[in-house]
């Protein structure tokens, strides 16, 4: 049995926010030892 080739698809999402909002999100991500994109994905999946 052969293994299927897995491909990764990406999508670019642009978010406009103030510098202060960005810093709050970056700090929250850092507290959880996540990158900003990982943190935003986690938050989105919990909605």
UniProtKB/TrEMBL annotation:
Pfam families the record matches: TacA1
Gene3D superfamilies: Single helix bin (1.20.5.780)
Organism: Microseira wollei NIES-4236
Name this protein carries in UniProt: DUF1778 domain-containing protein
Keyword field: Toxin-antitoxin system
Domain of life: Bacteria
InterPro entries on file: TacA_1-like
């Amino acid at each position: 049995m052969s293994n299927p080739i897995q491909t990764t698809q990406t999508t670019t999402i642009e978010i406009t926010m103030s510098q202060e909002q960005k810093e709050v999100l970056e700090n929250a991500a850092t507290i959880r030892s996540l990158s900003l994109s990982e943190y935003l994905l986690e938050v989105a999946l919990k909605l």
